[in-house]
UniProtKB/TrEMBL annotation:
EC identifiers of the protein: 2.7.9.2
Pyruvate phosphate dikinase AMP/ATP-binding domain segment(s): 52-175, 190-231
Record field: compositional bias (Basic and acidic residues): 825-839
Compositional bias of kind Polar residues: 788-810
Annotated organism of origin: Actinoplanes campanulatus
A single MF term (Gene Ontology): ATP binding
Sequence ranges assigned to domain PEP-utilising enzyme mobile in this UniProt record: 886-956
Composition skew (Low complexity), residue ranges: 403-472, 716-730
Descriptive protein name: Pyruvate,water dikinase
């Protein structure tokens, strides 16, 4: 079939008619008013010859006259990718010859540079896409535009946005002329459009981007409806406004979490909060971990402390967003109620005594931390409790090479976490609470469920480890770490006006006893010793080196010993579903190659670290003299705390380090279960088990033990598991396991491409940071009135023709081509900066403003986190796996965790889009004395790879060389 009427196209015809045509056919079936037309199918495109006879006949059947010729690729107008603006649309085409020529142009646009770049960015194979073409009658529009059924700037689901212009609406779609915009809170002002939006969103099940036109007779025509692909998933529906904070920011983890990792982390975080006496529901939104902090925000005793918590743990962007939330009348203080769980007085007493004890005897505190880590590591068998590990951590001379990291220590004590009902967001989050918990797994096909935990130690239910005095590992790990953090934070307040933040940062540089630093330096020493193999290590891609190493095809460079000690590490390592370095050492080989390119040995990491430590001691000595002279009592206390900070603050990585040993053991056991499911024909590969919830995996393992393997992977025995435990056993059956995994993996890979994760969300979908930035932006100008003669005929609440003018789903293929042109006067008024609403919290948040309120050209402002000034070429990195960072380059990233830190050893400075001053990235930057600027919204888009920039860690600015 080469040409079909649009009225005969259904959703099932996506492979034949493409996304746009099937969407239009669906609208026709719904009874919407859609211009008549036909579709030239993908079969014609596959054959490579225009079906001239069929096209002429179909065009004549329309009555001739002007038509619109529009692409309809098979990957177009879908929920995961709109392909808006990537393929060709030709308007006002008249005559059969012109129609045929326009169809040929649409075919050619499939292979255009812009479309190819868009597919590459989203992992869509070029050979998997076919092109159909839609030909429709032109609507002679008096007014046309776009209706968004949710606010595309703020994400608010209770609002709609209308953009319109006189004529056919090309200025709205292309952003090439004045556009009128309205925000609608209800249907009073524009009832017909509001009703249309409600109908289409209800039918499609998601917010829609609807193109429409009104002809001279006043008839409303629907030209297209597709999902708004840039919206962040909405939180669970709630009649009562709720505020959610994204917890991944604390760990420098913005990528989505696998379903198995989500279940584990929910338990861990719930247990950790409970141990601190805090009640907060943990929910899955868009595959990210959000905490419902509404009660804390409304409670008079905790709301102010909540803002301080945002500043310390989540960073200035989250702090600003939370401050904005607290001005909202819906979150006004409410008397009564409690935000704390039972037993918090006991927790407070343990905290107080533990902190005082650590400050009084820091060496003994380090020894207790080392013993707790060794016990937890020894239980996994990874490190034996032979005293070597304890001595290494206690002394800071970690010759054994223990792993690393954490901002908030993972509690190894058992705790009954409150049920955390899964929310909307990730595909695995629609299960009952039973499917998201962490039950045991089947050890072998014939065995019963074992007690092996899939979660953190907090969810095992096994007795807590204790030291010789009976204290729990949780106390031994937590309070020395907290003491170090307090000792780092308080001196700045005590000496406000006497010393600067930069001086405090210098004193806290080159800290000993940090296991992450020890890991990085161990890898540096390995690379330095492997210079005899430099040609091989530099000339072979890291992924190939990893394959050779795992197959035994590489010379011995000492990597085996390194991985024995650190192989359970990885970027985003808090997610149980992420492969460890021992499984995929490509990131390690990439780091080794970076180190081998370092020619100036004076910039060697160990020397940089030593210099940072020397500067710290000198700065502390100078500060002590001034502080005691200016403020004798406070000065003495501040100096005491800073000395204790240098002895204890490096321990902050030890809590997560201890938990990661358990996590690595859990992952190995899960992969063993996954291998048995592969042998039973139920999974394609062992790691697919990470895309199941614990309940689903347990049900699949039990079913595999009770049934005979089937070549097609179908279940041949009786499903086990309690009714309602998982959708696999009750709704679709075990036979759908491969399909479930495939769908979740596709969703996960698509979410990995998301560059902006809102730090604070409201239950109506509002991205608070984006809303705050938009309000600041529009407050700088006088609101314009509606265009004379335009159907909106009203004063708009948003500026016409301003930097948020174009729609978020337009021209998405250029999303990575942003430049630092002035948003008001730049040559490209359609730059991604103006297009992608909410992608970085809005332009004003990231651009330094001049006295006239206009963004200063070439200057990005964030927060200085490590003093120093350096100029170099920017290196934009989204995945540390195979990243190449040349010596002296500026590392520009969205976020970092300890798995990223090997890249720091060759970088000259660090720029991040997120983070707090005490987060992993800036902390390690200070250890090496490298300048760092954090919380620079949109830095990875606004700075071009290879662009020369100057990073000023004291001023908190990133300036481009113009």
């Amino acid at each position: 079939m080469l040409v079909v009427p649009l009225s005969q196209v259904s959703a099932a015809d996506i492979a034949l008619a493409g996304g746009k045509a099937t969407g239009l056919g669906e609208l026709i079936r719904l009874g919407e008013r859609v211009p008549d037309g036909f579709c030239v199918t993908t079969e014609a495109h596959r054959r490579g010859a225009l079906p001239e006879t069929e096209v002429r006949a179909a065009y004549e059947a329309l009555g001739g006259g002007p038509v619109a010729v529009r692409s309809s690729a098979t990957a177009e107008d879908l929920a995961g990718a709109s392909f808006a603006g990537q393929h060709l649309t030709v308007l006002d085409v008249t005559g059969p010859e012109a129609v045929l020529a326009a169809i040929a142009e649409c075919w050619e646009s499939l292979h255009g540079e812009r479309a190819r770049a868009y597919r590459d960015a989203r992992g869509v194979g070029h050979d998997t896409v076919r092109m159909a073409v839609v030909v429709q009658r032109m609507v002679q529009a008096e007014t046309a535009g776009v209706l968004f059924t949710a606010n595309p700037v703020t994400g608010r689901r209770t609002e709609m946005m209308v953009e319109s212009a006189a004529g056919p609406g090309t200025s709205v779609v292309d952003g090439c002329g004045p556009v009128s915009r309205r925000i609608l809170a209800d249907g009073a002002a524009m009832p017909e459009l509001w009703a249309l939006g409600e109908r289409l969103q209800r039918h499609r099940g998601s917010p829609q981007d609807v193109e429409w036109a009104i002809d001279p007779a006043g008839t409303l025509w629907v030209l297209q409806s597709r999902p708004i692909t840039t919206l962040f998933p909405a939180p669970p529906a709630s009649d009562d406004p709720r505020v959610y904070v994204e917890f991944g920011h604390v760990q420098g983890m913005l990528r989505p979490v696998t379903p198995m990792g989500m279940a584990t982390l929910k338990d861990v975080i719930s247990a950790m909060l409970a141990s601190l006496g805090v009640r907060a529901e943990i929910v899955d939104i868009g595959g990210r971990l959000y905490g419902d902090l509404t009660d804390l925000a409304r409670h008079p005793a905790t709301r102010n402390r909540l803002v301080k918590l945002m500043a310390v743990d989540f960073g200035p962007r989250a702090q600003a967003a939370m401050e904005h939330v607290l001005t909202d009348p819906r979150f006004a203080p409410v008397k009564g109620g409690s935000t704390r769980s039972a037993g918090s007085p006991a927790t407070a007493f343990r905290a107080l005594t533990g902190i005082i004890r650590a400050l009084a005897r820091p060496a003994a505190a380090r020894a207790r931390v080392a013993e707790a880590v060794a016990r937890l590591a020894g239980e996994d068998g990874a490190v034996q409790e032979d005293g070597h590990v304890r001595a290494a951590i206690a002394s800071g001379d970690d010759k054994s090479g223990l792993p690393t990291s954490i901002h908030s220590p993972t509690s190894p004590t058992p705790s009954t976490s409150s049920a955390s009902p899964a929310s909307t967001g990730s595909p695995a989050s629609t299960k009952s609470p039973a499917s998201t918990r962490s039950p045991g797994f089947v050890r072998s096909p014939a065995s019963s469920a074992s007690s092996a935990s899939t979660g953190s130690p907090a969810s095992t239910g096994s007795p807590a480890s204790t030291n010789s005095s009976g204290a729990s590992d949780s106390d031994d790990l937590t309070w020395p770490i907290v003491a170090g953090m307090l000792a780092s934070a308080l001196p700045g307040r005590l000496l406000d006006g006497v010393v600067t933040d930069d001086e405090i940062h210098t004193v806290l540089g080159g800290l000993p006893h940090n296991v992450t630093i020890e890991m990085d330096l161990a890898l540096w020493r390995l690379a330095d010793a492997a210079r005899d193999h430099a040609d091989l290590l530099l000339g072979t891609p890291p992924t190939d080196l990893a394959g050779l190493y795992l197959s035994g095809g590489l010379p011995d460079i000492g990597l085996g010993a390194f991985l024995d000690r650190y192989g359970h590490r990885a970027a985003a390592e808090a997610d149980l579903g992420v492969p460890r370095w021992s499984e995929d050492p490509a990131p390690v080989f990439a780091a080794i190659a970076n180190y081998l390119r370092l020619a100036d040995l004076d910039q060697a990491p160990d020397r940089r670290f030593a210099r940072a430590a020397e500067r710290a001691e000198a700065a502390l000595a100078d500060l002590a003299v001034r502080a005691r002279r200016r403020r004798p009592v406070r000065g003495a206390l501040a100096v005491f705390l800073l000395r204790r900070a240098r002895e204890l603050a490096g321990l902050r990585e030890s809590g997560k380090f201890a938990g990661l040993y358990r996590l690595a053991a859990d992952r190995r056991r899960l992969l063993e279960t996954g291998a048995r499911l592969v042998a039973a024909g139920r999974l394609a590969e062992p790691a697919d088990i990470m895309f199941l919830t614990p309940g689903e995996a347990a049900a699949a393992a039990r079913a595999a033990a009770e049934s005979v393997p089937d070549p097609a992977g179908r279940h041949t025995g009786s499903p086990s598991g309690s009714p309602g435990e998982t959708s696999l056993t009750t709704d679709a059956g075990i036979a759908d396991l491969p399909a479930v995994v495939a769908a979740r993996k596709a969703w996960y890979q698509a979410e990995c491409l998301r560059r902006h994760v809102p730090p604070v969300l409201l239950s109506d979908g509002t991205d608070v940071e984006a809303a705050l930035a938009a309000n600041r932006h529009f407050s700088d100008r006088e609101p314009p009135s509606g265009q004379e003669g335009d159907t909106t005929k009203a004063t708009l609440t948003r500026q016409e023709g301003d930097t948020t003018r174009a729609t978020p789903t337009r021209q998405e293929g250029d999303a990575d081509k942003g430049t630092l042109t002035n948003p008001e006067h730049g040559s490209d008024r359609n730059a991604p900066l103006e297009r992608e609403h909410g992608s970085d919290g809005g332009t004003p948040f990231g651009w330094e403003r001049g006295s006239d309120g206009v963004a200063a050209l070439g200057v990005l402002r964030g927060v200085g986190a490590s003093a120093g000034r350096v100029t170099g070429r920017a290196r934009i990195i989204h995945d540390p796996g195979t990243a190449r960072v040349e010596p002296g380059e500026i590392l520009v990233v969205a976020t970092t965790d300890p798995g990223w830190t090997p890249l720091f050893l060759t970088a000259a400075a660090l720029v991040t889009e997120t983070g707090a001053i005490m987060a992993h990235g800036p902390t390690v930057a200070r250890e090496y004395g490298m300048p760092a600027v954090i919380s620079v919204p949109g830095a990875t888009r606004l700075i071009a790879d290879g662009q020369v920039v100057t990073v000023d860690g004291a001023a908190g600015t990133v300036t481009t060389a113009l």
